[in-house]
Amino acid sequence: MPWHLLWHLPDRAAARSGLKVRLALNAPRNRQATASGGRVAKPGANEVRSLDPTREEAPMTAQGGSPVIDADGHVLEPRGMWQRYLDRGLAELILVPEPGSGLRILPADQNPQARRPHPISGTVGGLTGLAGAVGKPADDVLTGKIAYDDAPAGAFDGAARLRDMDIEGIEIAVLYPTIGLSIGNAPPGIAEGLCRAYNDWLRDYCAADPKRLVGIGAVPMTDIDQAVVETRRCVRELGFHGVFIRPNPYGGRHVDDRWYDPLWKAAAELGVPVGFHPLAMWDMPGATLHFDFPDISYAAAAGFALDSMVTLTHLIFSGVLERFRDLQVIVLESSGGWIYTWLERLEHHMRRLPSLRPGVKRGALQQFRDQVWVSFDPDEKALPAMVGLLGDDRFVWASDYPHFDATFPGATAELREVIAPLSAESQRRILGENARRLYRI
After folding, report:
1. Which of 73, 92, 232, 339 is the most buried (most CB within 10 A)?
2. Is 279 left (phi over 0), alpha (psi -120 to 50) or beta?
3. Which of 180, 186, 228 is nearest to 205 (CA)?
4. Which of 269, 334, 327, 280 is nearest to 306 (CA)?
5. What domains can you pick out in the chain, each with its CATH number?
6. Mean pLDDT of the region 205-226
7. Is there a contact between 398 and 216 (Cβ–Cβ < 8 Å)?
8. Could you tell me which residues come within 8 angstroms of residue 354 by beta carbon, excluding any fewer than 6 positions away?
């Protein structure tokens, strides 16, 4: 079943199988204890990135003793994980057999949009391989030389992740999904089951060391009531420190729609942030779909920042942050050098046309200082300039490990070089103290 068609089939498929779309999620699952999810890989495939144990490890603390915290790292969901963690009825409904492995998998690689031709060679490669291509030529994914299972072992397994963090000098990693970035947009019932399965697996991944591996939950955004239920479960039962959604309209609704209010209220009451994490896909309204970006470079380079700018504008202009003063939101993986200019522009228009914002008492800059956080890539040279303009207490850094555009090892070295001109206290905050406050670690 092609991945892009999956979301359009539940009513018909459920009728055939005798299931309702709102599946009973208390049925027995196929889950086993291992978080590796029954992944079948090529011999040695996920050991390719094993590192020299004699390599000198980077320091895990900033000057002043604060831990170094990666505010947005990623896991890769083992392909066989879904058949273990999904509700059995839902697994039968949506998973497809993988020839040769015996696994039943989510059909992500069958998505025609994920197999767009390489713009130069014209050959086709599954883009999911880019998810774990850190340290490797990305073009080898696009030409089919590197696949999803060739990612570093730490992407799939918590214990292996800790070893990679030791090498990188990261004390704590805050973890977001990869395939799971898209599951909250599935139809009601299906999204609920997928998010629950992913979150359960992530809990087991983090069990390797819950003090160092911090989970961020996926929530089913096509049913806001269930999104609230899963948010509460993630925080109260699974021990996660936040939830994420994408900076795109769910069900055609922008984030200024009152439909989202129960989620904002729940996150604020629980004291956890909502991260807005973009995805280079053509499955939701947003820049990538609207402008018909032809490949993943357009989608990631331009689409991420554009979607984040639009979403932040809605949050500030509409009064969402005014109505939920305890809500904290994060702009993720969209670069950060644009943030001051954008806020300044919003502030200017709020002053010039105040009648359009009758319920908004604070300007854009003040709302940012009170409730908004921005993540920077380790090598973004604009970070010190943004600290000079906006202060040092709303910025965090993100490795993006193990995705193709990450640096490993060496991300923390890049970051330390970028922030070297800043004061020791500013460096301490950016390396980890801000993320500790943000995620309440």
Report:
1. 73
2. beta
3. 180
4. 334
5. 3-21+64-439 (3.20.20.140)
6. 98
7. no
8. none
What tokens were used for 102?
């015996």
Query: DSSP letter at 288?
Result: H
- The pTM for the full model equals 0.88
pLDDT confidence of 63, banded at 50, 70, 90? Answer: low
Q: What's the token pair of residue 169? A: 């000098």
- At 262, list the tokens: 């129960």
* Packing angle of the helix pair 364-371, 383-390 (nearest 10 deg): 110
pLDDT at site 361:
96
Q: What is the distance in angstroms between the CA of the first residue and the CA of the last residue of the chain? A: 41
Residue (of 217, 141, 129) closest to 180 by Cα position: 217
Rounded Cα gap, residues 190 and 192, in angstroms: 5
Kindly report, residue by residue over 291-335, the tens digit of the pLDDT. 988 888 898 999 999 999 999 999 999 999 999 999 999 999 999
Q: Are 398 and 332 in contact (CB under 8 A)?
A: yes
- Angle between helix 190-206 and helix 224-236 axes, rounded to 10 deg: 10
**Cα 192 from Cα 23, distance rounded (Å):** 9
Q: Are 131 and 151 in contact (CB under 8 A)?
A: yes
Q: Are 250 and 257 in contact (CB under 8 A)?
A: no
Distance separating alpha carbons of residues 201 and 44, to the nearest angstrom = 23
Please give the mean pLDDT across all residues of the chain.
86
* Amino acid (1-letter code) at residue 368: F
Residues 6+ apart with CB under 8 A from 282: 113, 288, 289, 293, 299
- Whether residue 253 contacts residue 259, with contact meaning beta carbons closer than 8 Å, is answered with yes
Q: Where are the beta strands (DSSP E) in 51-171?
A: 69-74, 96-97, 104-105
- SS3 of 145, please? coil
